[in-house]
User: What shape does this take?
Amino acid sequence: MDRPALKNKTEVEALRPNGDKATVYWDAEITGFGVRVSPGREQETKVGGTLKKVRKPSYTFFYQGRINREVFKVTLGTLGRLGFTAKNAADKAREIEAQLRLGQDPRKAKATDSHTTTFGDMMTAYVEMLQSAGKISARNVENAIKKDIASAFPKLWNKPAQDIDIDDCVRIIAKLNDEGSPRQADKLRSYMKAAFTAAINARGNVKAPKVMREMRLILNPVSVIQKVSGSSNASDRALSVAEFRAYWKRIKELPEPRRSIAMLHVLTGGQRMQQLARVTLADIDRDSMMMRMSDGKGRRAKPRLYSVPLLPQALECINNSTGSGRYVFSSNGGLSPMHPSYISDIAADVCTAMAEAGELEGEAFTGKVIRATIETRLMKAPYRVSSDVLARLLSHGLGGVQAKHYAHDAMHEEVVEALEKLWRLLENQPEPSAQVYQLRASA
Assistant: This one.
């Protein structure tokens, strides 16, 4: 085929790998300028209103040349990675081409310029660290950094990382806060703080990205910036018992698989939706009636495994929602996992129907409120489930030792009892009371 113009984004994105193997394409104009097209990872995307797994190719630009009969290769960047464009790659390739004409070694020039690593280089390396650690949040972090730093503050993005000061960081955070997005503003604050911390600690970490190891940073300008006010005002909304039962009644009347997925969300205690999306049939132990889950929140390097007991009614929902696929929480019979917003969308529809029917006593609610409702209602009379048991059920800060012995200690039975109380609450069944027997006095 004719060589493409690699500075043209449309022509680059039209290139495809050879099956499952990466394929190299060379630029039509700049000698030595190429792009490596890899199959990429499977990603969920909506096709005709249905979530499907699609492989999106990855495009990594490079320059390959020769100095003193020695072949060298310099990686220029990946298309779309935090704003990197095909034009950026072509410009870098021309710079290297000019250096070669002057007899300069671009590899040495890059080494001497390592002390001028930019703020953007550091943030990009931070995202790569999250991706390498398998953090689910990596994609959201990357999108936020691209939109709210790279695109919004290009001069700061290209500023040397060691020259970034507190005022620069405040500008980024204040812009979002002034636009009425305190939550997003505080997220950017935490991302930048974590990136600087990682760069500072990278010097003694051989697994850290090379870019970070060579920065020699000693100060974190974000460490003194306070948490953004109003960024984490937790909602105190919890459904009343009447609202909760109305919600339960309505989801039981939904068509499949919405019915079983929404019911299973409730019957397993309102687990976090991103964690539910990862549950497969291999995580269901029907003999011990347990569902294995993984909690990747926080700074842990590996997700923490824990188990949730399953009531017989929950197993029935699993049977109804799974088909030929492997995922339990799925909108297409298990072929692919549900989108984390799938249950929230169901809750929003049910909330609207409840409002129209006059069943809503408070403000509108979201899917996250179901989790808070379960915890709130089980703590109150007549159920009085302890906070320790609820922590087990909802995975509130369980340590490794607790999780390791979870299925073997006595509290496992108490969690099962809590779920049985939840079932009776939903079905408006009375709590069993103790029988009182009259003891006759001995003669």
About this structure: DSSP finds 18 helices and nine strands in the chain. The radius of gyration is 28 Å. The domain at 241-426 is CATH 1.10.443.10 (hpI Integrase; Chain A). Residues 182-201 form the longest helix (20 residues).
